[in-house]
Amino acid sequence: MTSTAPSRAAQPGRARVNSYTTRDGVSAPIELAYDVFGSSRGRPLVLIMGIGAQRIFWDQSMCDQLVDAGFQVVRFDHRDIGESTHLEAATPRPLPLLAKSLAKIPITNVPYSLSDMANDVVGLLDALGWSTAHVVGASLGGMIAQHLAIEHPARIRSLTSIMSTPGGRRYVPKPHALRALFSPRPKTADEAGQHVIDLFSAIGSTAWATDTQRLREIGRAAFERGMNPRGFMRQFAAVGASGDRRPKLPSTPVPTLVIHGSRDPMFPASAGRKLASLVPHGTWLPITGMGHDLPPPLWPTLVRAIARHAERADAH
Fold this sequence. Notes:
α3 packs across α4, α5 packs antiparallel against α6 (189-203) and α6 (189-203) crosses α7. The chain has an eight-stranded mixed β-sheet with strand order 1-2-4-3-5-6-7-8, sandwiched between helices. Residues 1-6 have low confidence and may be disordered. The protein has helices at residues 60-68, 94-102, 114-128, 140-151, 175-181, 189-203, 212-226, 229-242, 269-278, 299-315; strands at 11-21, 27-37, 43-48, 71-76, 133-138, 156-162, 256-261, 282-287. It is 39% helix and 19% strand. It has a single domain (11-172, 230-315), classed as 3-Layer(aba) Sandwich (Rossmann fold), CATH 3.40.50.
């Protein structure tokens, strides 16, 4: 079992990165809670997690491995979840959102977009004093990373997209994956622990045994730190409203590594393959048996791939 307890001291912080307009028409600040691992001598690396997933889903042991590979690592809670700012904004109803998404009807009038969430990351870089950084995004995080590469390419040294999608109508989750993602929200820490186990039993990898104790600890910790089901729905709406990135990706100059599992029920491997083919400097790394998760036995493989990609990007 891989422990979620810190094996290296994290340097926590909060950064004001953006603002939003409340339902009363008042401008309110957005602050992101973050952790820094490693020395400032390391290559700057930002980890962006998936929808509704707090920064602790980037396991500290994996962060340690990235530090050992030569990075200074930052992980953070997105707006609307965890210890970052929870917005006072309208919450789209889930069923109409799902219906529009599955029917391929444009989603409009949402509280914020993936471009806004990408701007949050730029604000975090500014707060950290980083002019540029390598970026790794998983799932929703990969979508945000693509917006960074499209809209802020001068700030991104390299992009690694894991189990994500370039958008478009072809790459939709399987029904059982959507059911797992939208299962009832837990009301206690114990329920939250079981919820995470059930979720990744449905969408996770098939080639490795599930570390249920690690997942239970993450779920309990996430509940105690501040789960926000409304924030989850607003993030889902942001995905739907941000549309198809395929027409814009060919113009990005950012070197891009695309990692995707062969058994991903949330986004098919063809989504990752398409992303790698769209960007001018794309590298495709499929992983047999990997689902929509980051299983501990794969961490050394992922870390080596991310480090090699960053080294090549910095060499050019």
